[in-house]
Amino acid sequence: MRRLEHVSTIIADLGDIFAFVAPVTVVPLFVAVLFSEWNMLLPMAFVPGIFFMAGMILRSFPRRQHGTRLSSAMCTVALFWLTCAMVSGIPFMLGLHMGFTDSVFEGMAGWTGTSFSMIRSLDTAPYTLLFWRSYMQWVGGLGIISFSLALASSTGLFRSRIFRSESRDEPLLPTVIATGRNLWKIYGVLTFCAIGLILFTGLSLWESVNLALSAISTGGFTLHPGGILAYHSVLLELILIAIMIAGALPFRLYYLILENRRWSLFGDEQVKLFFLFLAIGTAVLTYDLIFFGSLDFLPALEQGFFMATSALTTTGFQTTDFHIWASVTLLFLAMLTFIGGAAGSTAGGIKLDRVAFAFRALLWWFRRLYVSGKVFLPFRIEGRVIPRATAELETAKNMLVIILSVITIFIATLLVLQFHITTYSITEIVFEIVSAFSTCGINTGYVSPDMPVISKWIFIVVMWVGRLEVIPVVMLFLALLRGPE
């Protein structure tokens, strides 16, 4: 009975989210009208139509009487991202006659903010679908911020909430909506500023809007097969660097800046860590491109700075052919991609706050090994002393996510190599898997419409698991297999 009640609550919450998202997905219909692509109206109308009807049906399922538990909320988020990818792939099936797998891949890449694509010819694709790809990344970027902050408010994963109880009941959708209302204004202003900056480079409004949507969401979809290189503009690359960085910094800081009316951006540990990693990444890539790639200093610096930013923000824009890069350089770029941006941003990866927490926890553990068991060594965060039991629990949570992330990448790499004999090196395959897990999408060439179907589904799952940072997907499978404890 408890298992049925648990699953029923998950389904009902999913219905609430579907009903809430349905009106948001109507926007591409206006693009179809604007460009007179009447044949795209019906394919695009399926998305809000299915979301609305499914929402009305699913939300009528019975729920737990005392609200939604954290485990149920995580399951709902995981199921939402998976079903969104499937529903959002319908326009690609009907509009471009893509297969089911390729369409789901495109939908998952859109909602997770990954720049991998299964569309063979972007130049001939309808405007409506090109906008739908960028728009999915934009909506998904705001969605992942809202969901992550709403879920983290019930756990200790955010330091400001470190004393909150993990088992408390929390209404999922109201929390997400309340969080989103405080964020959408900031997100909208940043997007508007991004569009204006890109327009300054001389690009059309159409190009500027799409690039801005994918850049601020750290998604990385572009309108041309050549990507950013198709524009041949150093000024555009510099502007995109600024926009990518804005999307990868914690959005709560923007909110605090607006509330306090003071610029305290660099007072946050994640921001300091981000720019430290960016500086190191730029320096290492520049050196490698000079030493291994025989580039002059300025071209190497330009390419290194852009790719370090694209990798660390997990945006996926690229300005180079990675076949000419040394393996060690590619692995270093994979490390930046795996780390990712700040928690509470649109970026993927394991997040900077988790890296900082893990480093601090390891130092704490090693220090405790060299002193007497009777000596008290405090665990401090932001000047506060955290109780030992709480610190150990949070350390276990953070290390669990990191370990599960590495295991996911390892298993996915083995599966790809097991089922596909390819000329691509192991380094390139590992890089592609890390890029998918971190929802980046920087591509060495392996991911393409011609890759085997089983590889496509492996990448779909990896993108899904990586976007949600593993735990919600694990909770979903446990709920389906075992039910609540």
Report on this structure.
The chain is mainly α. It is 65% helix and 1% strand. It is built from 19 helices and two strands. α7 (127-152) crosses α8 (172-199). It starts with a helix and ends with a helix. Residues 154-170 have low confidence and may be disordered.
- Mean pLDDT over the residues: 86
Termini separation: 12 Å
DSSP strand tally:
2
Structural class per helix/strand content? mainly alpha
Structural shape = globular
Helix content: 55-70%
Rg from C-alpha positions?
22 Å
Oligomeric state of this protein = single chain
Unreliable sequence segments: 154-170
Please list the strands of the largest sheet in the order they lie side by side. 1-2
Order of helices and strands: HHHHHHHHHHHHHHHEEHHHH
- In terms of DSSP E residues, the strand content is under 5%
What's the helix count? 19
Topology at a glance:
Blueprint: H1 2-21, H2 27-34, H3 41-58, H4 70-88, H5 90-96, H6 100-112, H7 127-152, H8 172-199, H9 205-216, H10 234-248, H11 251-260, H12 269-291, H13 297-312, H14 327-339, H15 352-369, E1 379-381, E2 384-386, H16 388-419, H17 426-437, H18 453-467, H19 471-481
Antiparallel strand pairs: 1-2
Helix pairs in contact: 1-3, 1-4, 2-7, 3-5, 4-6, 4-19, 5-6, 6-7, 6-18, 7-8, 7-9, 8-9, 8-10, 8-11, 10-13, 12-13, 12-14, 13-14, 14-17, 15-16, 16-17, 16-18
